[in-house]
Amino acid sequence: MGKNFVKKIKCGFAVAFAIATTFVYGQNYKITPNDTITATAPFSALNHFTIQQNNLIKGTLVFSWQQILLDIPKGWTANLCDNGHCYPAFPTGGTMDTVFKGDYGLMSIGIFPDTISGTAVVRYAVWESNTPKHLDTLTWIISANETTGTFKTKKNNDFSIYPNVANNNINIFTNLSAGFQFLICDANGKQIEKGNSTSNEIFISTANFSNGNYTISIIDLNHNIYTKQLIIQHK
To answer: Would you call 82 helix, strand, or coil by DSSP?
Structure first.
């Protein structure tokens, strides 16, 4: 893929999918076409699905990124490219080449599913070096031989967290009797803990969590994603 992959990838497409939140602070770049891509990858073909960070200022920008969630079907060939680099897999973090006036950064997922059905879910947090606390969460949901649009955000009342505000532990209660995955991220989008429950609830120790705000995402067996905020305040 190397020589044929130029810095400005203009392939891929997007359908709005509201499971990620883009923070808007009058910032110096714009996410296009959207912060989430839901798409289909055809069998036996390589496709790239790209999200750009357009430079809106006269100066230069430097973007860094960190992995939040990675779920790739077994047997697929897939990788990550950013502005200036193509990686053989999916690194946990990195920094793009400098983005000059009128140019853009990018995060691009390359997918080759061969003839294997499945769905990939990939999430990265992206931020500009001058505003490291202002994160954008980018999400790719790429299916092969499956109907797109089957992923959707559920209402927050589909699970509950107790206590919230929490001290040394929390209980997560859901209506998902078949079990679920969970992912906990801090306010900067960094993954703190993840795991699985085989029932509709789980007990999690938060004794080693720092005080602050966290996001808990619950993923059911159909890959529906449920998200709530958690506050940790040790006494």
So the answer is: strand
92 and 69 Cβ atoms separated by less than 8 Å: no
CATH number for the domain harbouring residue 214: 2.60.40.3080
Q: In this predicted structure, what is the pLDDT of residue 208?
A: 92
DSSP string for residues in 16-70: --TTS-B--SS-SEEEES-SEEEEEPPTT--EEEEEEEEE-SSS-B-EEEEEEEE
Residues 234 and 211: their CA atoms lie apart, in Å, by 6
Token pair for residue 74?
């077994």
User: What whole-number distance in Å separates Cα of residue 131 and Cα of residue 128?
Assistant: 5
Do both 41 and 124 map to the same domain?
yes
- What is the rounded CA–CA span in Å between residue 172 and residue 202? 5
176-215: burial string, b at 16+ Cβ within 10 Å, e else = beeebbbbbbeeebebbeeeebeeebbebebeebeeeebb
**pTM for this predicted structure:** 0.55
Are residues 164 and 131 part of one domain?
no
135 and 197 in a single domain? The answer is: no
Q: Do residues 23 and 134 share a domain?
A: yes
* Residue whose tokens read 């061969």: 114
Residue 38 pLDDT: 86
Our count of domains for the chain comes to 2
Closest CA to 82 of 62, 101, 60, 68: 62
Work out the average pLDDT over 104-116.
90
Residues pairing with 89 in the sheet: none
**Domain that includes residue 167, residue range:** 156-232
What pLDDT, in 10s, does the model give residues 34-55? Answer: 899 888 888 888 888 999 999 9
